[in-house]
Amino acid sequence: xxxxxxxxxxxxPDLRQLYELALVKIGLTVEAVGDVxxxxxxxxxQRYRVVVTDMRLPDGTGLDLLRELAxxxxxERTIVITAYGSADNAVExxxxxxxxxxxxxxxxxxxxxxxxxxxxxxxxxxxxxxAAPRAGDTPPPAPDAPPAPPAALQRxxxxxxxxxxxxxxxQRVARTMAPVLITGESGTGKELIARALHACSxxxxxxxxxxxxxAIPAELLESELFGHRRGAFTGASADKPGLFQxxxxxxxxxxEVADLPLAMQVKLLRALQERAVRPVGxxxxxxxxxxxxxxxxxxxxxxxxxxxxxHDLYYRLNVIPIHAPALRDHxxxxxxxxxxxxxxxxxxxxxxxxxxxxPAALDRLRAYPFPGNVRELENLLExxxxxxxxxxxxxxxxxxxxxxxxxxxxxxMAPTTDAPSRDxxxxxxxxxxxALLQRHRWNQSRTARELGWTLAKLxxxxxxxxxx
Length: 468
Description:
With 468 residues, the protein is of the alpha/beta class. It has helices at residues 13-24, 36-45, 62-71, 87-95, 108-122, 150-153, 161-173, 190-199, 218-226, 243-246, 262-274, 300-305, 311-317, 334-349, 359-366, 373-387, 430-439, 444-451, 455-465, and strands at residues 6-9, 30-33, 50-54, 56-57, 60-61, 77-82, 100-103, 180-183, 208-212, 227-228, 240-241, 251-255, 276-277, 286-287, 291-296, 320-323, 356-357, 392-393. It is globular, with a radius of gyration of 26 Å. Mean pLDDT is 83; it is low at 124-149 and 403-422.
């Protein structure tokens, strides 16, 4: 049974022949045309596994074909080829539903890698490849998107519209290679979203590698991300692969991407464009096959305006945005989230069953603004579970919970010193930070642990906000 062919749409005869030969050489069946009209004629006759189309064609654009395929519910994975430096075209193609994009000049090796990834996504390992229908046959209906594995989304608890939107976006974009930018306050579960995105994708069997960009010293970032060669610098006694190489075939999660120095942003941009990295001390680049997901609690658009973040990198990262809502913005989900956390903690501690929360305990939790979001809720429940063992947690398990006088909104507490009460880049206001410190009797280690920060980060923001 002959597998469905691939369709190449390229108006330059030399490039069309180069692409065709590169794919035929590895045993793929390829059809090639030079314009949109011919592509439409072929697509009307049969289905293809993958469609590779140039962006600019004599009688239209690759986006025209892409939108028509999406409109008709076709199952073909589409790869769009753009001119070098056409970042806007690449972003537009991905947002319109392209599986991936390539930047000219496209090498045969890069084309084959992109095709292999698209084929793996269209037909997971072990799945049968559909045969090419004969001329005149009625094309079969496009298959619905496969349901996401339940385990991939089970920790994204909640029935609110905000959480439904997060899960739906994950299921919709998991099947593509489009970069995703997850935004939201600290403690909202941005890494959980990234892990769910990875688990729902065709790359789920590959590695998930997470790195906090703000936790690595600037002078070590390039080596950590791209690797280094032996002798590249003092102490480099052997070749070492970087995190890009470690994530090959899977997903690389760059948390707090806004903390990348400008010099590193340039190198990350090139890695995204070329799908290749150059280890420190190497003379050539190495191709890498990773899906990039990034996250930040900062306003990247404002950092771009202030010259602190590259405009071109921002648009490469922010192809698909996902916002992790603050806990106070979906409070109806709090009981379900709290119970899910308690069940996980009980399982971890070997308890026969998870305790439940009384209505009074839930009322007390709902009255608190949770500046640390779900991470803070988890810390509170863990402490309550340790100090109040038993089948039920009542309101007295949360007696230390005293709401601060200001919330995470736009109205800060009146300053008690000349220092600003809210820093534009700060993850929380001075009033909120003071409230957290007071609740922990100014124990900085406990406060940092509740926020998920290092002690150095806490002290930095205490000094910057004029706390203490």
